Amino acid sequence: MNLEWAIIRGSGIAAFALLSASVIWGLLVSSKPVARFVKAKPLTWFHESLGIGALLATLIHVFVVSIHGFVDFSWTEILLPGASDWRRLPVAFGTLAMYGLVVVVGSFYVRKWIGQRSWRLIHFGSLGVFLASLLHGIQAGTDTSNPIVLGMYAGVTIAIFGLVAHRLTPTEIEPPEPVG
Hints:
Oligomer: single chain
């Protein structure tokens, strides 16, 4: 394995791990049980930093893919979803995840202009970014057969969907309306 291929693989896995950690951290910090014990605002810097790290690892992944000769991607194939001849759909998922990550991370810096409601709506989209990157990694990644990588995919997916389910579950059950 040459250095470029190691960087492509490592940066892709690092991008996925950092994105997953950012989504998990965001869900934890914004959940009601955690909010009762800690103030979320001081902890958002860590969430933001994980997102920036995921974006930087993604940009390294994309750049090194563009100069590596194994598949010989053009910038059009990298930047235009569905333009790749090699594993068209999985590569498109990766491209869409990259664009989504740019939007979600960028929203930290325009929050005061777009408002809390728009910022939250954009951040709900991070679940789609996670899913697109998961599908990209599973279908286009060369390390999917590695038990550690497969375990990472399964573990973070279970954690994220568990946290989303917890967040969507009402905290108090309303008693039924009296009949008559």
